[in-house]
Structures are given as structure tokens and as C-alpha cells.
Amino acid sequence: MFEMRRPGLIATLFLACVPLCRADVTNCKCDPAKPETLETRECALCREADKHPADKKFFFLKDNNPRKPNRWMVLPVQHYAVGHSIDELPRSEFNALWAAAIAKAKELWGEEWGVAYNGEQVRTQCHGHIHIGKLLRGVETGKPTVISNVSQIPLSRGKGIWIHASGTKMHVHWGEQICETVLLR
User: Fold this and answer.
1) Could you tell me the sign of the dihedral formed by the alpha carbons of 71, 135, 112, 86, in that order?
2) Is it the case that residue 15 has pLDDT exceeding 90?
3) Is 117 within 8 Å of 89 (Cβ atoms)?
4) What are the φ and ψ backbone dihedral angles of 45, each rounded to 5 degrees?
5) Pick from 160, 111, 117, 159: nearest CA to 135
6) What digits encode the pLDDT tens for the residues 58-100?
7) 70-75-80-81 Cα dihedral, nearest 10 degrees
């Protein structure tokens, strides 16, 4: 009897997960000037950013998800327009944010570091942030862009980016939506 129901169960589980996989926060309605708009789950990192001095450019935060005990994040303190994309940062701050993420990742994981920024359609938090962790073995796919410094990191343009060490250079993977899955939870 269970064998006959399994395809239906699988289809039901798949359809239940589809909304979770497409967490698009580009239409988030949070407004830091109206604290009541920051009460939704997707605005939790906006609330966290508000706890930090405005003169700081960014801050580090240990991921509080119990399923991600090895993960850190770096976030800009300032809020930006709808979607809070890090692309909206001035280029010097964009570079500094990535440089800080990579430095923290190296501090924590040595040459096995990895950093990842999820695309707009799958982020579950509207306030842009970069995930910091240990790169999983064997995840390298496609033909990455090889760079020497953070000034060569492209804007996300709504897509995800993940970056890791490759000898004295770095590999940049761009174009996927879900990128943090290349890092150890």
C-alpha cells in the first residue's frame, strides 16, 4: 500500500518545498524608519543591523541557525533600497565587505575557506549578507573566473556568487541562485 502512495507523497513534498526554495525578498516592505515593519522574519537581519553604530560600515554575525553551527556572516550596517542588495554599496565598500568576508574565512578555515552570496530569488533575509565558511570538497563546477584581488569581483546583478581560494588566486562562480550550499553547515 505504501509503495502505491510514494509517488504522491514525493510530489506533495516537492510542491510544499517550492515556495521555500523561492524566497524572493526583492519586494520586502521593511522600512528602518518604521520599526514595526521590521518585525517579519525576513527582516531579522535589518533589525540586527540597527543594533550597530551607523559609523561602522559592516559587522560580523555568527549564524544563529542551529543547522549551520560553522557559519558566519558579514553584513553592511547601512540599509539600502528594496532588496538590500550589496550591489547598492559604493564600490569601495563593496570591495571592503568582500575583503572582510575573505579575511574572516581565512582566519577560520585557512586555505579551505569559502564565501557565498545568495541570489535575490532565494534569499530568506532581505538585508544583504555574505556567508562565511569552509568550502566543501568537490563542489567546484563549471568554468570559474580567476581573479587576483577583490576589486575584480563582479556585481551580483540579482544572481548568487561564491568565491574560494585557488593557490595564490581566487575562483569566482557567478550566476546560480543558491550559493551558500557550497559551504560546510
Assistant:
1) negative
2) no
3) no
4) -75, -25
5) 111
6) 999 999 999 999 999 999 998 877 568 899 999 999 999 999 9
7) -10
Residues 151, 51 contacting (CB under 8 angstroms): no
Torsion-angle region of 109 (φ positive above 0: left; ψ -120 to 50: alpha; else: beta): alpha
Bridge partner residues of 165 (DSSP): 170
- Whether 77 and 54 have beta carbons less than 8 Å apart is answered as yes
Inter-residue contact 132 to 125 (CB < 8 Å): no
C-alpha cell at 68: 549551520
Q: In what order do the strands lie in the sheet with 161-166?
A: 58-62, 72-76, 130-134, 113-117, 161-166, 169-174, 145-147
Give the amino acid at 114.
G
Q: Please state the φ and ψ torsions of residue 171, each to the nearest 5 degrees.
A: -105, 130
pTM recorded for the entire structure: 0.83
Please state whether beta strands 145-147 and 169-174 pair in parallel, antiparallel, or not at all (unpaired).
antiparallel
Confidence tier at 24 by pLDDT (50, 70, 90): low
- Please state the length of the chain: 185
Sign of CA dihedral 70, 74, 80, 84: negative
Round to whole Å and give the CA distance between 24 and 1. 38
Q: Which residues is 73 bridged to in the sheet? A: 61, 131
